[in-house]
Amino acid sequence: QVQLVESGGGLVQAGGSLRLSCAASGSIFRINAMGWYRQAPGKQRELVAAITTGGRTNYADSVRGRFTISRDNAKNTEYLQMDSLKPEDTAVYYCNAEVVNRNLIVLNYWGQGTQVTVSS
């Protein structure tokens, strides 16, 4: 079994910054792609940013230039640095990871979600 534990959400004023973390633990052989998604009330969950094992990144147009995804492979942890936050960034943020477990089975895992609220 694998667990993803997120931290770092909260309330911030527009223009401020937050840093989210997501630590994976459990039966892990390797973690392939990792990513951050978000879901605002009444909206579908959407991809915010993703990063490969080698560090190649991909961003939603709405956050490109303001958010930075990174990972520490030695710690099985990913981060999302969010700068210049806007009220429309308000959502529950979920981390996601494609994990190869010790039985060499590839499974997809989600964190529990962390609330990010940006006030105007």
> Outline, from the CA principal axes?
elongated
Query: What is the distance, rounded to the nearest whole angstrom, between the alpha carbons of the first and last residues?
Result: 41 Å
The percent range for helix content is: under 10%
Number of β-strand runs: 11
Task: Produce a short descriptive summary.
The protein has 120 residues and is mostly beta strands. It is built from no helices and eleven strands.
Overview of the molecule:
The structure is a single chain. This protein has 120 residues and is mainly beta. It has strands at 2-7, 10-13, 18-26, 30-39, 46-51, 57-59, 67-72, 77-82, 91-100, 106-110, 114-119. The radius of gyration is 14 Å and the shape is elongated. The mean pLDDT is 97.
Question: Keywords for this structure?
Answer:
11 strands; 59% strand; elongated; 7-stranded mixed beta sheet; 4-stranded antiparallel beta sheet; 120 residues; mainly beta
